Amino acid sequence: MKMLIFFSQLWLLAILAACSNSEQLGPRTEGVYMIVDTSGTYTKELTKAQKIINVILSKLDPGDAFAVARIDTGSFSEKDIVAKVRFDDRPSTTNQQKRRFRDAIDKFVKTARPSSFTDVTGGILQGIEYLNEQSVDNKTIIIFSDLEEDLKEGYVRDIPFLLDGFKVIAVNVSKLAKDNRDPRKYMTRLESWQQRVESGEGTWRVINDLDRLDTLLSSS
């Protein structure tokens, strides 16, 4: 009888522990920071960025965080954030927040002007800071750019990234005229950014096929 009681107690403890672990895990929150290149002819690509933003919005849930920022001369600044939101726990309020977010992006796409310089590094650093402050479980930085960094004189960007726990995804990485003349330049540019991200303990992906946008926030 004592042995039966002992095993019953063990069984009950195992159930309680499993329930406790399940409660601790709960739904995992997503945080996404997307930086959008506005240099040169990339302003003509903003409708593609808008499509990507809408896909991301459709995938985010209550409790998740999302911000979109422009890349310009000096992007390590909150002033370059076009729209940001931490979604409410109530789905009805989240839907209202998504509509306001879309409205802000629509206005940005219609009024954006080309920037003279391209501070990709500053944008990534600002994204790291933003997502760390949000205390989300999954942190993703999306870069909509050709990844050709062009810094104004005096700007220092030889700074290591601290990306442990981050995913960095480059989308719509357009080829420049010089890349068509020598494809090695394009490959070298991608490899250079991959090395910077991975040396900071982050994961790196490139998605140029916009039909694959459904995989943006997947674990693969």
Furnish the topology, listing elements before pairings:
Blueprint: H1 2-25, E1 30-37, H2 46-59, E2 65-71, E3 81-86, H3 91-111, H4 120-134, E4 138-144, E5 166-171, H5 177-181, H6 183-199, E6 203-207
Parallel strand pairs: 1-2, 1-4, 4-5, 5-6
Antiparallel strand pairs: 2-3
Helix pairs in contact: 2-3
Short description, anyone?
This protein is of the alpha/beta class and about 220 residues long. It has helices spanning about 1-25, 45-60, 90-110, 120-135, 175-180, 185-200; strands spanning about 30-35, 65-70, 80-85, 140-145, 165-170, 205.
Key features?
single chain, 220 residues, six-stranded mixed sheet, disordered N terminus
Description:
By secondary structure, this protein is α/β, with parallel strands linked by helices. It is built from 6 helices and 6 strands, in the order αβαββααββααβ. The chain has helices at 2-25, 46-59, 91-111, 120-134, 177-181, 183-199, and strands at residues 30-37, 65-71, 81-86, 138-144, 166-171, 203-207. The protein has a 6-stranded mixed beta sheet, with helices on both faces. β1, α2 and β2 form a beta-alpha-beta unit. α2 (46-59) packs antiparallel against α3 (91-111). It is globular. The termini are far apart. Residues 2-8, 10-14 and 20-24 have low confidence and may be disordered.
